[in-house]
Amino acid sequence: MTDEVFLAYTIIFSVFVFIFGTVIGSFLNVVIYRTPRHESLIRGRSHCTTCGAQIKNRDLIPVISWIFLGGKCRNCKSRISARYTVVELLGGALYLLAFLRFRFSLELIYCFILFPILICLSFIDIDHMEIPYWCSISIAVLGLISIFTVNNMPWYEHLIGAAVISVPFAVLAFLGAMGGGDVQLIAAAGLLLGWGIVPAALVGILTGAVYGVVHKAVTKNSEMCFGPFLSIGIAVGMLWGQDIIQWYVGLLG
User: Fold this and answer.
1) 3-class SS letters over 184-233
2) Contact 188/136 with Cβ under 8 angstroms?
3) Torsion angle defined by CA atoms of residues 250, 199, 18 and 27, in that order, rounded to the nearest 10 degrees
4) Can you give the C-alpha Rg of the chain in angstroms?
């Protein structure tokens, strides 16, 4: 295969993966809205939260429909939050990054499962200040499966990853510095990432700390959700965690 053909295939598949990610993101908007309200994910059409009108099929195209509607409901003309489009674009961007990083591999499938969970827990945490148990449990199950299917690390490194950050996090939670959901999330992610959880946690802590300082300076309120920042770190750890670890070990050597 020539370089030109390889590039063409890469572009075609990248576009397809991005579009697929936005479609997944569109569904995640439903999950984020309905699961905290204990509503069915499969029953009931999507509707305007202001007037209750059902959203027509032509208005459910990810990103494009929101743009053509001018960010307003077709029926009552009330504003539709841009966050729905942000979630769709985020899904597309993360899927594209995963594809460019792992191409057609088992790791890509893990990313396609992990990233939607991270998006859901982040926005649910923003809205309700809690990380759903099903999110952490799903990541833990993914970690357990990876022990038997991914050959880039021995089984005991998965267990080390589950403990190395979650133990100090548990101490912080005991002291009231963070919630128990954060501890469960980092332990589950450690089971999946192994030593990769270390750079993941560092990224989460640093981004959370920067946001926390700015947030407190602007609002005078120190309360904040930590799940989204841990999710950023976990995504980084999934994509480049092992590379970061090898780079650091190389510096020491």
Assistant:
1) HHHHHHHHHHHHHHHHHHHHHHHHHHHHHHHHHHHHCCCCCCCHHHHHHH
2) yes
3) 160
4) 20
Helix, strand and coil percent figures for the chain, each rounded to 5: 75, 0, 25
One-letter amino acid at 122 equals S
- The three-state secondary structure class of 25 is helix
Q: Which residues, listed in sequence order, are joined to residue 72 by a DSSP beta bridge?
A: 79
User: What is the DSSP track for 134-160?
Assistant: HHHHHHHHHHHHHHHH--SS-HHHHHH
**65-84 pLDDT, tens per residue?**
999 888 888 888 889 889 99
pLDDT in tens, 166-215: 999 999 888 877 888 999 999 999 999 999 999 999 999 999 999 999 98
Cβ neighbours of 103 (radius 10 Å): 11
pTM above 0.85, yes or no: yes
List the chain domain ranges.
1-104, 131-253
